[in-house]
Structure formats: C-alpha cells, structure tokens
Amino acid sequence: MRITYIILALLVFSVVLSMLISQDPERSAALSQMYRNAAFSGETRQIIIAALAIGIGGFIVYLTMTRR
After folding, report:
1. Is the pLDDT of residue 1 over 70?
2. Residue 21 near residue 28 (C-beta atoms within 8 A)
3. Could you give the C-alpha distances from 19 to 6, 10, 15, 16, 27, in angstroms and in order?
4. pLDDT digit string (tens) for 14-60?
5. Which ranges does the record mark as transmembrane (predicted)?
6. Where does 24-42 have alpha helices with state H?
7. What does the DSSP 8-state code read for residue 39?
C-alpha cells in the first residue's frame, strides 16, 4: 500500500472523528477546556516564542554559513 493512501486515510479518519466530537456538546466542551488548559500563557508563551525565533534564526545563519 502506498504511503499517500495511508496519509489520506488518516486525514479522513481525523475529519470524521472531529465531526463526531463536535456534534456532542459535552465532548466539545471538554475538548475546548483541554485546549485552554494545554495552552501556554503569559511569560511562558513569550519565552517559547523567543526560543523559537532564536532557533529559527540560528538555523538560517547555519544554512547561510555552510552553503557553498
């Protein structure tokens, strides 16, 4: 079986599953609460964004310095 069919099947499965969850109000509320609890807030979010910016910037510098 080709990998594209497997990826397509997983995408279809996730869409069907999300449609089923969104129709049930209790599960939808629980999912929204889970997203709110898992999200970074305040200073932690700023630190993570700064670390990502430094990491991406460092990777760009690495690529430009090692390019021949």
Report:
1. no
2. yes
3. 20, 14, 6, 5, 11
4. 999 888 877 878 877 887 888 888 887 788 889 999 999 999 999 99
5. 46-65
6. 25-38
7. S
- Alpha-carbon distances, residue 67 vs 50, 53, 58 (angstroms): 26, 21, 14
For position 58, what pLDDT does the model report? 95
- Cα 25 to Cα 46: distance, rounded to the nearest angstrom: 33
Rounded (5°) CA angle 40-35-42:
20
- Tell me the one-letter amino acid at 45: R
Long-range contacts at 34-41 (CB < 8 A, ≥ 24 apart)? none
Amino acid in the structure at residue 3: I
pLDDT attached to residue 59: 95
